[in-house]
Amino acid sequence: MSQMIDLVTQYGAHNYDPLPVVLVKGQGACVFDEKGKPYIDMMSAYSAVSHGHCHPALIRVLTEQANRLSVVSRAYHADTLGLFLKTACELFNYEKALPMNTGAEAVETAIKMARKWAYTVKKVAENKAEIISCSGNFHGRTVSIISFSTEPAYRAHFGPFTPGFVTIPYGDASALASAINENTAAFLVEPIQGEAGIIVPPEGYLRECERLCRKHNVLLMCDEIQTGLGRTGKLIASEHEAVRPDCLILGKALGGGLIPVSMVLADASVMSVFKPGDHGSTFGGYGLAAAVGKAALDVLVEENLVARAEKLGQFFMNGLKQLKSKAIKEIRGKGLMLGIEVDPRYACARDICLALLERGVLSKETHEVTIRLAPPLVISEAQLTEVLSHLKAVFSQ
Ligand SMILES: Cc1ncc(COP(=O)(O)O)c(C=O)c1O
Q1: What is the pLDDT of residues 192-219, one digit of tens each?
Q2: Are 255 and 296 spatial neighbours (Cβ–Cβ below 8 Å)?
Q3: Residue from 50, 134, 138 whose mutation best tests the ligand 1 pocket (most atoms within 8 A of CB)
Q4: pLDDT digits over 295-340, tens only?
Q5: In terms of Cα–Cα distance, which of 277, 285, 268 is closest to 99?
Q6: Does residue 306 contact residue 235 with C-beta atoms inside 8 Å?
Q7: DSSP label at 102?
Q8: What angle do CA 332, 336, 337 make, to 5 degrees?
Q9: For 47-92, what is each residue's pLDDT tens digit?
Q10: Could you tell me the distance, in angstroms and rounded to a whole number, from the CA of residue 133 to the centre of ligand 1?
Q11: Residue 342 near residue 210 (C-beta atoms within 8 A)
Q12: Is 252 considered catalytic here?
């Protein structure tokens, strides 16, 4: 076992259970361990590395900006923020954007925005606002966010929890219709649930949810931290159903695989509830984050990564469907956000991930039965073909 793993085991909190590999270098869709062994990265850091590892254009922007100016805080203006906001608003078609750092912070920001909108615009009685979320959701790890998680492991012994959240089954628009009442501020939803095991809701679900939200003056808030920025073969996954969320939440790949950058987008009628002093973050949209975030969006467009995800996603999905094994229960997903659910009678997802690791393919199990396959969008067809041959070998064992 590597000495680096021993150090983490000795000094680190044991809140993760990583696969036994120490990575030291990355390039594109490939990473290398301490001994120089290459791996094809089919995880891309839970979709944070959609642009590939150490993208040269992003590294250039990062280093130039780091050498010039990084953090001044929002007490002043940094010269990179405005262009980042403009690029994001124009690309996603919103009037306003509010940058934060991690995904969870962006979700917290959206929750605060929805509550304040409910009290000051919709005129919900003070402290009565409700936000509806879905079973199986994953929106982050803060106390308020885990307050509406339905995963026992994420909640146990972390109470007391934040009130004001209602949970309904995922993929069931009639449950949303029943749950909405005069106090409902927003419906918070992932267009595809990633952490829950790449769960794709029924066709038409999000469209119907949008219709219900509009009808009842409820904000539709789509958490596209994982599904956004091309991952599912559209710029944002909501586009598959021609849905325009009232509030779009982005993170992960927005930092170009280099630094944490997240963002909430909305129109002025909603975003303008925020006034100086009522919300913020020392690092939210800091000079370096703004420069890298803008470059990450530029590269996404310049390199056609959205179309690439769609094309390669179809190619890879077709290949996955050729895998014949009684251990495979279902293959699902969109674009390059795919999952193989195994039948626990015949296979254990972690064992398959370990066998793939041995063969030079990085993947990761979620919920014991699903293997996540979400490579950087810059991956090549040849690399995906290689992954398919390894999957075939592992599943035939
Ligand atoms: C859909 C979704 N929302 C929120 C988050 C939380 O993001 P972060 O880990 O950056 O706080 C994640 C992370 O996996 C996610 O997948």
Answers
A1: 999 999 999 999 999 999 999 999 999 9
A2: yes
A3: 138
A4: 999 999 999 999 999 999 999 999 999 999 999 999 999 999 999 9
A5: 285
A6: yes
A7: S
A8: 50
A9: 999 999 999 999 999 999 999 999 999 999 999 999 999 999 999 9
A10: 15
A11: no
A12: yes
pLDDT at 344 over 80: yes
Label residue 17 exposed, middle or buried (CB < 10 Å: 0-12, 13-18, 19+): exposed
Nearest to 354 by CA among 18, 26, 6, 3: 18
DSSP structure string for 153-199: HHHTT--SPP--EEEE-TT-HHHHHHH--TTEEEEEE-SSBSTTTSB
Q: Mean pLDDT for the chain? A: 97
Active-site residue identified among 165, 223, 234, 294:
223
Residue pair 292/61 in contact (Cβ under 8 Å)? The answer is yes
Q: Residue 97 Cα, ligand 1 centroid: separation in angstroms?
A: 18
Which DSSP symbol is given to 100? E
- Best mutation site among 225, 232, 263 for ligand 1, i.e. most ligand atoms within 8 A of its Cβ? 225
Take residue 31 and report the two structure tokens written for it: 């990473």
Q: Which atom of ligand 1 is nearest to the CA of 104?
A: 11
Asked about 41 being catalytic, the answer comes back as: no
Which protein residues are within 6 Å of ligand 1, measured from CB?
46, 102-104, 107, 138-140, 190, 194-195, 223, 225-226, 251
Please give the number of the atom of ligand 1 that sits closest to the Cα of 194. 16
Cα–ligand 1 centroid distance for 246 (angstroms): 19
List, in order of start, the domains of the chain with CATH numbers.
Answer: 56-302 (3.40.640.10)
C-alpha to C-alpha distance for 139 and 186, rounded to whole angstroms? 15
Which residue intervals of the chain are DSSP H helices?
3-11, 44-47, 56-68, 81-92, 103-117, 143-146, 152-155, 173-179, 205-215, 268-271, 287-302, 305-322, 349-358, 381-395
Tell me, in angstroms, the distance from the centre of ligand 1 to residue 137's CA.
Answer: 10
